[in-house]
Amino acid sequence: MKVFYLPRGFYQLSRLNIQELFPKATERLRLLRVWEALRERGVDSFEASKILGVPRSTLYRWRKRLEGFGPKGLEDRSRRPKRVRKRGWSPDFIRAIKELRSLFPAWGKEKIWVLLKRLGFETSVSTCGRIISWLIRRGEVRPSVLKGTRGKRGGLRFKRPWAIRWPRGLKPKEPGDLVEVDTLSVTLSPGRVIKQFTARDVVSGWNVLEVFSSASSHCGRRFLEALLLRVPFMVKAIKVDGGSEFGGEFERECFCRGIRLYVVPPKSPEEQGYVERAQGMHRYEFYESYEVPLELGGLREVVRGWEYVS
User: Fold this and answer.
1) Rounded distance, CA 51 to CA 36, Å?
2) Cα–Cα distance for residue pair 307/209, rounded to 1 Å
3) I need a labelling partner for 105 at 20 to 30 A (CA). Which of 147, 156, 173, 260 fits?
4) For residue range 217-270, what is the model confidence (pLDDT) as tens digits?
5) Strand 164-165's sheet: what is its strand order?
6) What is the CA radius of gyration of the chain?
């Protein structure tokens, strides 16, 4: 009786302990076993690789790695290039970026790059960014960290005892159900800026305007008193943004008079669409079109006349 033996490599594969390998290496070792078995049964190597769905060149490469390094040779290897381009940054160039970043720790690569061009360094924005990242990894410069919380800008920066967040979807039906109030900064002359408080009823479109030298909660309370005197209906609710002029005395006055006070979310001018459009009209059709008094007393009289017309 004639005895046939399989190649030595097949028996070596069968004796390997594959429990310590990663799943990918284990699967590659299994495919090599099946490939060798198919070839021993007379299947062409090309057909065997086609059956397994693995290119023949890949199987040969796996077998070579197995013979040279053992089962661990089937693990994933590093894809790092053998030849890596060396850094060609000059010490003066690195020193300049380090000094600029130390002077302006919150600046990014675009602004640093502009200053480098003014200093005579010819480079790209991406190269500047790579050097900054390299310096950060080495601990020579600090990563830029935004101070404070972004969400606090223009939002509820202080505790509101009476005001609540504006519930979207609330639709007023009668005049006075909702009045939007906002402030407008107007430059009368260089260095001369006044604040206009603007109120607009959402249903009737009724406007009330008043100007002050500043926007404080005290001025806000005075404007609220003027608003309630000038409108021919009862004000039931007021909607404002998160400005400090609508807290303090303004909020307490709303509480004392039983007026519901709503505050829109931060950075949401679209929630104040009625009063925002009204303020645009006041700016371009009044302040930009006519010569107005520079003194606050005379300006108030003119603004009252414009309020009646608008």
Assistant:
1) 12
2) 6
3) 156
4) 999 999 999 999 999 999 999 999 999 999 989 999 999 899 999 999 988 889
5) 164-165, 260-263, 237-240, 179-189, 192-201, 207-212
6) 38
* Phi (first) and psi of residue 49, to 5 degrees: -65, -30
Q: Which two tokens stand for residue 42?
A: 């007379």
What pTM, to 2 d.p., does this model score?
0.51
Cα–Cα distance for residue pair 64/57, rounded to 1 Å = 11
**Displacement of CA 20 from its chain's centroid (Å):** 45
Which H helix or E strand runs over 142? none
Helix and strand counts by DSSP (H, E) for the chain: 11, 6
Q: Which residue in 6, 46, 48 sits closest to 31, CA to CA?
A: 48
Q: From the CB of residue 244, how many other CB atoms can be counted at a distance below 10 Å?
A: 13
The tokens describing 23, both together, are 């799943």
Residue with tokens 């594959």: 18
Place of tokens 């979207």: 168
> For residue 179, what are the β-bridge partners?
201, 238
Distance CA 6, CA 195 (A): 95
d(CA 209, CA 251): 19
Q: How many CB atoms lie within 10 A of CB 89?
A: 14
Cα 243 from Cα 215, distance rounded (Å) = 9
Three-class secondary structure of residue 289 per DSSP: coil
What is residue 245's DSSP assignment? G
Q: For residue range 48-88, list pLDDT tens digits in order.
A: 888 888 898 988 888 888 888 888 888 887 777 878 777 77
